[in-house]
Amino acid sequence: MNITVFCSAYSLDERYTAPAAEFARLLGQGGHTLVWGGSDAGLMGLLADGVKAAGGRLVGVQVELLKHKGYTGADEFVVTRDLAERKAQLLMRADAVVVLVGGLGTLDEVTEVLELKKHALHEKQVVVLDTEGFYAGLRTQLERMDTEGFLPRPLGELITFADTPAEVFEQLKA
Q: Which has the closest alpha carbon to 42: 68, 10, 72, 14?
């Protein structure tokens, strides 16, 4: 399975890196391909290193502006003109999307993927690894949107949340 992962390119605390490293190990050991933003920095670099060490394949998709931060050990590396093209490539290459902790870029990516899914422009599974309750606020907001009729499809058809890396893979199998 090609699993596109949205996450931070910043170095983070152990409470975020440990679950990401476990996720990377499970992804690689499962024989899956990591499709990610292509960076060697922070959580992105940790994820790529972990997947590679566990035997997985790497497809990096980096924007021209940041190609100097590109991961050099990827099996395939794509450079895009801009962020919009990068997001399109990340989604196009995905069989499923997983969201780890991240900042504004990650939030932008996941909301775009959800908007496209809302309009049935793709049917790829989207799973959020909610490490340390990082996405509790997003989950609450999405649940409110669902409850109050702002979503044309049930929330559970658009996105699911997992507490552990193992639970992410259980949901991907379902």
A: 10
- Cβ partners under 8 Å of residue 27, min gap 6: 3, 34, 50, 51, 54, 56
Q: How far, rounded to the nearest angstrom, does the alpha carbon of residue 106 sit from its chain's CA centroid?
A: 8
Q: In whole angstroms, how far apart are CA 82 and each of 3, 29, 31, 65, 86?
A: 21, 32, 30, 8, 6
For the chain, domains (ranges, CATH) are 2-169 (3.40.50.450)
- Other beta carbons within 10 Å of 117: 20
N-term to C-term CA, the chain: 13
Question: Which tens digit of pLDDT belongs to each residue from 94-143?
Answer: 999 999 999 999 999 999 999 999 999 999 999 999 999 999 999 999 99
Q: pTM score > 0.85 for this model?
A: yes
Instruction: Provide, for the chain, the percentages of residues in helix, strand and coil under a 3-state DSSP scheme, each rounded to the nearest 5.
Output: 50, 20, 30
Residue 174 has what pLDDT? 79
24 vs 56: CA distance, rounded Å: 9
